Amino acid sequence: MNILNYAREIKRKIKTHQTIFIVGHQNLDLDAIGSALGLHYIIQKYRKESYIVIDDQVHELGVEKIISEQPKEIFISSQDIEEKKTKKNLLIIVDTNKINLLSNPKILDDFEDIIVIDHHQTNEYTINRGLLIVDKESSSTCEMITQILSHYRIKVPPEIATIILSGIVLDTNNFVLKTQAKTYFTAYYLASFGADPKKVQYYLKQNIKEYIARQKVITNIEIVKEKYAVATGVEKIKYKREELAKIASTLIQFNDIEASFVIGWNQDNKIGISARSEGRLNVGKVMEKLGGGGDDHDAATQIEEDSLQTVKDKLLAILNK
What we know:
Layout: H1 7-15, E1 19-23, H2 30-45, E2 49-53, H3 61-69, E3 75-76, H4 81-84, E4 89-94, E5 113-118, E6 131-134, H5 141-152, H6 158-171, H7 181-192, H8 197-204, H9 208-218, E7 221-224, E8 228-232, E9 238-239, H10 241-251, E10 259-266, E11 271-277, H11 283-288, E12 293-294, E13 298-303, H12 308-319
Parallel strand pairs: 1-2, 1-4, 2-3, 4-5, 5-6, 8-10, 9-10
Antiparallel strand pairs: 7-8, 10-11, 11-13, 12-13
C-alpha cells in the first residue's frame, strides 16, 4: 500500500483541520520520533497547529537527545490534548497500527478523524478507524514520510533531514535489513537537504556500561534448529527496550543465524522480547502468538510473567513446532 496513493487525501485532511496531533507507539524509537517530526514539519508548511503527543516518562538515549534539541512547545502529553483542541482536530498515528502499542489507547476516543501511517503488518489489534495506510514494503515510517516530503516538494532543514535519516538507519540496521532501491533513494534525498551521517551516528551512540551488559546477554544464548538465536538476560537486571533490540540486531549478523530473539526484563516491570529476521521466518507472526507484533524482519512483545525462563519456554515451544 504505497503512501503516495494517499498523498492527496493526506494533504486534504491536513488542510481541512485546524489542529493536528501526532502520536507514535509507546517507548519511542528513532523511527517514531523521526517520522513524527517530519510530519510535524509538513503540517507547519500548511500553516496548521501541530503537536507531538508523548506519554513516555523514560526515553532511549537517541530519542532523548532529539527531544532536548527541539522546541519544547511542540511536545505535549495526552493530558494536554483537551486544552489544545479546536473546532476541527485530526489525530495522526505513526510507526504503529496497533491500539495496544499506544501509550494511551484512550486517545482514540478524543478524535473523530484519524490517519494511521505505518510499515508494520496488521493483526487483530490494528486500529480499524479512519484512514489506514500501511506499507509493509517500506523499510520504516521515516521512509514513507520522506516519500510524502518529496511528493509535496517540501524542503526540510538539515537537522530534520538528519533525524529522519536516523530512523531509516535504525530500522534497516545500517541498510542491512528491509532495504530496497527506494530506501537508498530516500537516504540520498535526505542527504541532498544536508542530512549529516555523523550526527546520525551521534543519535545512535551507545552507553558503554549498557554495551558491556549487552555482551553478557550474548554469552547466554541458545541456538534452535541451527538457525534461530535465543538470548536471555539476567533475571534481576532491567534492560531498556532499545538494548534488547540492539542485541537482536547484533545476533542476526552471525553466520547461519536467520532470526534472533532476545528476552529480558524491561523498565515497565514486564518481560520483553525483541526479534529480528532476515525474512525467511516472519518474526511478526511469532510475536503475535505472544501478544505482540511487527513485520517479517522486526518485531517485539511485552509479557506479564514471573520469570524469564517461563517466557523463554513459551518462545521455544513456538520455534520448535
